[in-house]
Design goal:
The protein is of the alpha/beta class. The chain is built from 14 helices and eleven strands. The strands form three sheets. The chain has a six-stranded mixed beta sheet with strand order 8-7-6-9-10-11, with helices on both faces. A three-stranded antiparallel beta sheet has the order 3-5-4. The protein has a two-stranded antiparallel sheet with strand order 1-2. α2 packs antiparallel against α3 and α4 runs antiparallel to α7. It is flat, with a radius of gyration of 26 Å.
Length: about 400
């Protein structure tokens, strides 16, 4: 292999730059990949085959992750950054293009300026990532869609921890009388220290119901990729379903580590892709088969749909009221909400609206980031009586009619 001016092999130089860029991606995602860990990773790569994705994965994971919480973020970043190709070829990814947009900015005034002079015009640059964050996913080119899919894979849609009824030992908090008394008895009646306990915390369950009907086809792929990111953030506490004319459970299909493989499996499992919409019937089936048995009880339920209901809208309103009593919080993502002048006037959307806690858009990466924030902060929302009831006055009845 030819060597460069600094004595390094050309291929090694490419791998070094690629892995340093990967470390920057990890730091942006919240992983503590400090310079010392990056150096340790580069030293580890000297002893493995850099053309083997598995060797590269473990070399980075064992050196760049600072604590167990970093592993899930590392997996998402590795799958999105390399996509199974860069590690095999040992080549650096293509550089990101910078889109320059000329913006008129007022210049500093000077004594020699003419009063009517509009001033200098200075060029400002806009990052393509920032531009794509707010682009409607239904209007993207193939190249832009690939970049958006990479950004969605980096989202962290994990729920906050909720307090359970069980207790665990803690340095402070409520006095643990039993442990304290047992310790006193072992010490012969001498009190050397007081033991304390506090409530254990565990992630709140997240349930995603994604509309895959014809009217949602431009957004279904992005919303399912968001569901894949949420499932990877909390695999044990996340459930994903597709709704249309049938209810399809997609949790197992979306457990693949790579997003493209997960989407292929999910597409093969959905029999009614781009079909009709029977939200009321499918929501009733979900509650009868899964929700009432505990999947939706105390969970954060996210419904991604435009609200077009071909069935009885009053049935949808009844099932939404039932869901609202079971769930901790109900979040509805409607891609059309971002359009100027939008109002939820469709029969299905109007029937569901009284039982929705958070109504957000789902048309872009920025909107999906907001949705992830809603899921993450929903655990600190208004406390419900009985695990699901809304505090304050009861909601108004759903409007009738189609």
């Amino acid at each position: 292999m030819p060597e460069g001016e600094d004595g390094r092999a050309a291929g090694t130089w490419d791998v070094t730059e690629t892995m340093v860029g990967f470390a920057r991606t990890l730091r942006a995602a919240g992983v503590g990949a400090d310079p010392e860990r990056v150096q340790a990773m580069l030293r580890a790569l000297d002893h493995v085959d850099v053309l083997n994705p598995g060797d590269v994965y473990w070399a980075g994971r064992l050196t760049l992750c600072a604590d167990p919480a970093d592993v899930a973020r590392y997996d998402r970043c590795f799958a999105a950054y390399f996509s199974g190709e860069v590690a095999r070829r040992g080549r650096r990814p293509p550089p990101m293009a910078v889109i320059r947009e000329r913006v008129a900015l007022p210049a500093e005034p000077s004594d020699e300026e003419v009063p009517d002079d509009p001033g200098d015009v200075r060029a400002a640059t806009a990052s393509p990532v920032e531009v794509l964050r707010h682009r409607d996913v239904a209007r993207l080119t193939l190249a832009e869609r690939a970049e958006v899919n990479r950004l969605i894979a980096l989202l962290d849609a994990s729920a906050e921890l909720r307090r359970t009824r069980r207790f665990a030992a803690a340095p402070s908090g409520r006095l643990d009388r039993q442990r304290t008394v047992r310790m006193v008895l072992r010490k012969g009646g001498e009190i050397s220290r007081l033991h304390h306990r506090t409530h254990r915390r565990k992630p709140r369950r997240i349930v995603l119901l994604v509309d895959v009907s014809g009217s949602m086809s431009p957004y279904a792929d992005a919303l399912l990729r968001f569901s894949h990111a949420a499932l990877r953030s909390g695999a044990r506490t996340t459930e994903v379903f597709a709704v249309g004319t049938r209810l399809t459970r997609l949790t197992r299909e979306l457990r693949h580590r790579e997003a493209d493989s997960a989407m292929t499996a999910a597409s093969a499992a959905i029999p009614d892709w781009s079909g009709g919409t029977r939200l009321g019937v499918e929501l009733k089936e979900f509650l009868d088969r899964f929700g009432q048995r505990g999947v939706a009880r105390g969970a954060i339920v996210v419904i991604a749909s435009d609200g077009w209901e071909r069935g009885d809208a009053s049935l949808l309103g009844e099932q939404m009221a039932r869901l609202h009593r079971l769930a901790h919080r109900v979040v509805w993502a409607n891609p059309h909400k971002a359009r100027p002048g939008y109002e939820p006037l469709t029969a299905g959307m109007a029937a569901a609206l009284p039982y929705i806690d958070d109504f957000v858009a789902g048309h872009s990466v920025g909107a999906l980031e907001e949705l992830a924030d809603k899921v993450g902060t929903a655990a600190f929302g208004p406390r419900r009586a009985g695990g699901g009831g809304r505090t304050g006055p009861p909601p108004r009845p759903a409007p009738k009619g189609t």
